[in-house]
Every structure is written in C-alpha cells, then in structure tokens.
C-alpha cells in the first residue's frame, strides 16, 4: 500500500488510538510513516506486531508519531524499514511512546537508523534491542532538540554510521540509560555513543565493548 502523505499501512489522527495484536505491516510506503502514522494525540496500543520493509520518503519508515502521539508497544519488531529520518521509528513534537521488549533490526536512514527522536520527544524503552541498523548519523538512535529518552536494559549491537554516533548520537539532548550495553557499533567519531552541543547522557551500570572508530 502507498499514501502520498501519511500512513501507508495505517493512519491514526485526532486522538484515534486503536488496539492491535499480532498484526503485520509489510512493504507499505508514504511520505510520513510508511507502516503507520499517528498524529494529534493518537496513541494506539500494539502487541506482537511486526513492521517489515516499509519506507517513508521523509520520516518514519516503520512508524511516525507526531504532535503528542505516544503509542504503547510490547514485543514489536521493526526490520528492514527505511526513511530519511528514523528508519524504524520517528518521534516528533512531544511524542513519547513506551516500548517494552521491542527489536529494531537492519533499519536504515540518513539520520537515526533505528529511531529518531526530535522536539521534546522522550520515549521510554525497556529490554529493547537495536541491532545492525545503519545511518549517516546515529546508527541505532538519534536524539535531537531536548529529546531525553529513558532506556533500561537495552542493547545496541553492530549498528553503524558513515559519520558520527554508531550506537547513539545525542545533540542538545540528555537521555538516561541504566544497565544498557553497546557492543560492536562503529563510526568515524563515537563508535558506541557521541554526545554533542553541550549536553550529555546520564549512564548507570552501562557497558561499552569493542565499538571501533574508523577516522
């Protein structure tokens, strides 16, 4: 399926928050939210859902959340999705989803291969995995403009960029990470993580192993 603007697979707008279980979004495309677009306080609940090979011309290959849209995702998978911003997921304008036991694998973008958070968007992630995502900046996750996600027991493995922040890039943003692991991520600068523009992450009991820089 395709849409010129929002939500190739599904578009939720104006406080529309469906409940989805065991659903699959495959090979959909749009300008925003190739698989799903949530706008204007639309916060669906997704369990055991899969987003595969969806694409967005602009933002959110798998899912796009905008304007205070904060879905709840449990045991969801984002694989092989692509976009300019946020290959797997893009969160914008006070959109802060809650993700538990979710996986982002082999997604790609120019900024934020796995996830891109922008404009006061601060998701909460628990037991989530980012593996093999790629971008120019922020292979696993890119946090920008006062976007301060909270991550607990999350893993960033083998994500890569052609420039900065293989696992995670933080610009004017200060995420909080507890018991997280960064392994085998690569970049020109900041193989595991790069903090930029006067802000920095707060890390507790985190591990960085074998994250090479190539500059």
Features:
eight-stranded parallel beta sheet; 28 strands; mainly beta; 215 residues; 46% strand
Explain what the structure shows.
0% of the residues lie in helices and 46% in strands. It has strands spanning 10-13, 19-21, 24-26, 29-32, 36-39, 45-47, 50-52, 55-59, 63-66, 72-74, 77-79, 89-92, 98-100, 103-105, 115-118, 124-126, 129-131, 134-137, 141-144, 150-152, 155-157, 160-164, 168-171, 176-178, 181-183, 193-196, 202-204, 207-209. It has an 8-stranded parallel beta sheet, with no helix packed on it. It has an 8-stranded parallel beta sheet with strand order 2-6-10-13-16-20-24-27, with no helix packed on it. Strands 3-7-11-14-17-21-25-28 form an 8-stranded parallel beta sheet, with no helix packed on it. It starts with 9 loop residues before the first strand and ends in a 6-residue tail after the last strand. The chain is mainly beta and 215 residues long. The radius of gyration is 15 Å and the shape is globular.
Low-confidence stretches: none
Distance between the termini: 41 Å
Quick one: biggest sheet? 8 strands, parallel
- Estimated helix fraction: under 10%
User: What's the Cα radius of gyration?
Assistant: 15 Å
How many alpha or pi helices? Answer: 0
Order of helices and strands: EEEEEEEEEEEEEEEEEEEEEEEEEEEE
Q: How many runs of DSSP E, i.e. beta strands?
A: 28
Q: Percent of residues in beta strands?
A: over 45%
Structural class: mainly beta
Shape: globular
Strand order of the largest sheet: 1-5-9-12-15-19-23-26
Summarize this, please?
By secondary structure, the protein is mainly β. The chain is built from no helices and 28 strands. The chain is 0% helix and 46% strand.
């Amino acid at each position: 399926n395709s849409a010129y603007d929002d939500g190739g697979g599904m578009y939720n707008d104006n406080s529309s928050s469906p409940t989805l279980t065991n659903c699959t979004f495959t090979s959909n495309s749009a300008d925003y939210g190739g698989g799903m677009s949530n706008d204007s306080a639309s916060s669906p609940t997704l369990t055991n859902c899969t987003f595969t090979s969806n694409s967005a011309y602009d933002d959110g290959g798998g899912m796009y959340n905008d304007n205070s849209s904060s879905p709840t995702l449990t045991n969801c998978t984002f694989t092989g999705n692509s976009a300019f911003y946020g290959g797997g997921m893009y969160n914008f304008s006070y959109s802060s989803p809650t993700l538990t036991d979710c996986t982002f694998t082999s997604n790609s973008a120019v900024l934020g291969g796995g996830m891109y958070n922008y404009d006061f968007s601060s998701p909460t992630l628990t037991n989530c995995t980012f593996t093999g995502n790629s971008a120019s900046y922020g292979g696993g996750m890119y946090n920008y403009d006062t976007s301060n996600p909270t991550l607990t027991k999350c893993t960033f493995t083998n994500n890569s960029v052609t420039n900065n922040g293989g696992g995670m890039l933080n610009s004017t943003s200060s995420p909080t990470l507890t018991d997280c692991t960064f392994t085998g991520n690569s970049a020109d600068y900041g193989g595991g993580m790069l903090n930029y523009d006067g802000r920095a992450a707060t890390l507790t009991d985190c591990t960085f192993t074998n994250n090479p820089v190539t500059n």
